[in-house]
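PT: before anyone asks, these are the final sequences, not the draft ones from last week. 850 residues across everything. Please model them as a single complex and drop the result in this thread when it's through.
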Amino acid sequence: MCDQTFLANVFGSCDKCFKQRALRPVFKKSQQLSYCSTCAEIVSATLKKIKGQLDTARARAAGLHQVAERVEALGQFVMKTRRTLKGHGNKVLCMDWCKDKRRIVSSSQDGKVIVWDSFTTNKEHAVTMPCTWVMACAYAPSGCAIACGGLDNKCSVYPLTFDKNENMAAKKKSVAMHTNYLSACSFTNSDMQILTASGDGTCALWDVESGQLLQSFHGHGADVLCLDLAPSETGNTFVSGGCDKKAMVWDMRSGQCVQAFETHESDINSVRYYPSGDAFASGSDDATCRLYDLRADREVAIYSKESIIFGASSVDFSLSGRLLFAGYNDYTINVWDVLKGSRVSILFGHENRVSTLRVSPDGTAFCSGSWDHTLRVREMVFSFRVCERRKEG
Amino acid sequence: AEQPLTAPSAQMERVVVSMQDPDQGVKMRSQRLLVTVIPHAVTGSDVVQWLTQKFCISEEEAVHLGAVLLQHGYIYPLRDPRSLVLRPDETPYRFQTPYFWTSTLWPAAELDYAIYLAKKNIRKQGTLADYEKECYDRLHTKISHAWDLVLMQAREQLRAAKQRRKGDRLVIACQEQTYWLVNRPPPGVPSVLEQGPGRGSCAASRVHMTKSADFYKQEIEYCRRALGRTRVKSSVCLEAYLSFCGQRGPHDPLVSGCLPSNPWISDDDAYWVMNAPTVAAPTKLRVERWGFSFRELLEDPVGRAHFMDFLGKEFSGENLSFWEACEELRYGAQARVPTLVDAVYQQFLAPGAARWVNIDSRTMERTLEGLRQPHRYVLDDAQLHIYMLMKKDSYPRFLKSDMYKGLLAEAGIPLETKKRVFPFSRRPRHSSPSPALLPTAVELTAAGGPGGGDGVA
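LR: through. Structure below.
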């Protein structure tokens, strides 16, 4: 009998029913109370019931994929690499398409920024930045200039010139100045303004001509890694994603954050708007891509698979928003059916991380850049075309 | 420096642990290597099969996943551990001991690498690969002061190893070799541990967030706005995706193809020529898109031009001109803001202006008030008012108009390019003039900018 442990009981007045009973500690709103066993049982039973109701409600609330069950599956397809752009001597970190649907600007770890006509695979311009790890580059809407930056903490604009006597680096214009690395940049609707995202946790809008800071966006709790401008009618917002696992939507005019989403479990590497502008997709180091609806103000779909272990570095939609292309750090590209949530294809074309991926402006192809020093342009052909099916059915 | 790949490492470790489960894991067998028998070995094909079944993936993907586990050093080949390649056949592999996992033993110490190379060198002269010889020499120079220690450790480890059974000796050698293949890869093999420039995590936040009164005021304001925001029912939002994808499907080249052909497939840029930004005869799909949304119409230079014509017939062309001028202001250079604002005022807003726009009195009052201190957003309210006017009134009438119906009827569907009879004769890929060469390529706003690539010499 001596080695038996006895439960030490506290007797007193129960905080709920006030009867004199043996008391147990119960936590309510981080305040410790003492309940008798009967009242404690009631509280835990109520909690279980509420949790159960919440679970059933969540299961009942149709997700995008349930609603899309009645949509026809995409079916068989053939995908081929049509162009391989070789010329970078080091990891390709970023790329952007020109509005002419065939030219591309790409930047790499060794500071080189190259402009290609990817249709002919000719290199048209090349400039070497004074810094390494050029993590961001963008093509101006007019096709007359490019912007790039990285570990130099700046975003510089280079006008593109074909004058053999002119050195491209001579006309370089330093536009943005951050206090940490530049992770992303994008021109707005004109060549005159640039939006940047930086490792210093802020985004900023700049006037290209004067280098003046027009607006800054504070709110991320850690490095901002990506941004995308909204294709909206009023053209006023953009979304950014960062190492604080948050995706934030900003009003360009006021600098205020209008919406924030925090469901990812790790750094958000890439954000891209759905073509309608009512939603955006994000790719993260937690190996998932997610779709966030702006009008419903919540996440509406997750694109993940148990066999996908490495983070998604870059995402983009096809023109209709039906396909989501995502490049991953395990060297693969996964193509997702946005509506049904299923994976349409997995591509093994690269020999190192896929760091950047963009669909061409007219949606005829998509280009991926990788740490294996190459860029590849690919297309897809579905054997049973969706529009044909609709005519028959 | 932070340990690399924490999230994938944890996942990979989970997979590898479940692969070694006695009941559900990969089939283990004893592998005979010359005269020794090594227990707990698995074949490449068994690994692939297990991954295929466990994750319900194709064999190709399973081979890739297995290769990833190998490249990160969680599995090693028993024979020829010079390269970490997964062969989906009878090739024997073993699971790396957790001691050598990246998450356990990181970062790899230079001293340990020196000892490892010294052991290899001592054991048999000339077994070091070229790159290993280089590293050895470099380390010798770098830690020459501690080289005696290195050699002593190497000899001691070799002596201790001799006292083990041959099987254990072989296994430990393989494990160690794999560890160094991962942490010091040979030239030409990408290092799986390489990371991009360091990122600040949430924990080690570089962002200075002073929790001042201002910060909390902002937070409260944000939460208040968030609470007051109207949210649309999920069911409505979800249906919107279906209808959007359904409507745009036939216009998506990657989903439905494009006529006459996809330039990337056929090497023929006819598709781009036919769909150039300014073209006399837009295709049927393009004219259809003008009916999808007002934004779609305005973003297309041809569509916008036709709409301007239509407005002209209704004597409301100044609305679109005003909107365009406002866009120019919003996206223009900062230095031009005062000039542009004044120009817009003179042309569209001043009493008796040549192209006076009809804005409601309240908005006009607010705009005129704001004009005292012009900034690039000062015309936003007026611009939005006119935009909505066009969208709700003129646009629907445009779509119902004979003009639009005529354009739709006239627009043609290109014929599909006949497939080449001789697949070997490749069509020459025409280059196109770079947009940077065009003389008009200066300061154009919105989507009305020039696009090159029309393939016309």
